[in-house]
Amino acid sequence: MVKDTVLYLNHSAQMSGAEASLRSLLWGLRRADAPIDPLVALPGEGPLTSLLRDEGWSVTLAPLRRLHRPRGLIDTMGALLHVLQTSPHICRLVQGANAKIIHSNSTTAHVVGGLAGEKTGKPALWHCRDMVSLAKIATQLAGKATKVVAISECVADSLERDGVPRDKIRVILNGIDPDDWKPREFSVMRELLAIPDDAFLFGVIGQLVPWKNHRLFIEAAAKLAEDEGCANARFVIIGGDLWGEQGAYVKELREEVRKHELAGRFNFVPNQSDAGDAIAALDCLVHPALDEPFGRVVMEGMAMSKPVIAMNHNGPKEIIRHEEDGLLVEPENLAEAMKRVIQDNELRKHLIRNTRPSVENRFHIADHANKMLELYNELG
Description:
Elements: E1 4-9, H1 17-31, E2 36-42, H2 47-54, E3 58-61, H3 73-97, E4 101-104, H4 107-120, E5 124-128, H5 137-143, E6 147-150, H6 153-161, E7 169-171, H7 188-192, E8 200-205, H8 214-225, E9 233-238, H9 247-259, E10 266-269, H10 275-280, E11 284-287, H11 296-303, E12 308-311, E13 327-329, H12 334-343, H13 345-362, H14 365-379
Parallel strand pairs: 1-2, 1-4, 2-3, 4-5, 5-6, 6-7, 8-9, 8-11, 9-10, 11-12, 12-13
Helix pairs in contact: 1-14, 3-4, 8-12, 11-13
């Protein structure tokens, strides 16, 4: 079978949601025996680089990096210099691999990938995975994209508000392989934390960044801690400061826990390489982010048959069907929803019964991979 090379550009060699989704797509294409030969360009060594190599994917190193929104002339010039220096390297990669498509796995990657596509005449795919307003830059990026993939309807709406033509946007919801997220009876992490068998553990999993809204979770935990009917409730925040930029925020979160005198019932746990074990430790996954573009961890928790509580905003609204396979709430009602899950056995059983089938039927990676393959065929 003749296979077409797709060059995937990713701006980070760390593991986060975007990187996990890229890996899922690669596996989805492989399992579908798709006529695609992936080549993944990463900025250097790191967890993602090692993992992809170990799994047999073709990985090459390229001078990609994270780009921050410029805060002045010097920042702007630095970002422009990076793009001008990196673009020729990507063009050589495209030509050397005879890549048919350039697939940028983030907006940052597309800054370079879009320019390379323009210079080489190859289709450039911009995979947009966030809701940060791009203002005037959005139309420029869209102009260098053959197609823009939005991971959710709310991301598509955000892009359209920034001026990206709707007919250039294709919504392809993220997917996971439920076989990678099977329910587990035992968690090493829970054992190491010495969580009692009769305790009910609520947890948030994700990067320690302000927009994930961990403070709301701590406030809800404080309310439950005052309720005698929730005496067995315990709480954990699992995640890390991936880029070493959130030291002040992490300190604030720990201060909040101390202020509410939750120390004996609250744990902070670093990012776990075995995310499945972390989810298995929980009795209920809480996702307090308001501006979540999709919510991969929500799907993962559901696939592992965990009750999930998320905000009734943006991405999670496209995943959870309220009171059928999870709970969607406004921020001020989070504590009450957590109380319902811990006290209402019938509700909890109902949610557990429906979560995994919902992911299997609506967010299977095979469907995601097929839709991406259809788009590749359109572009190629």
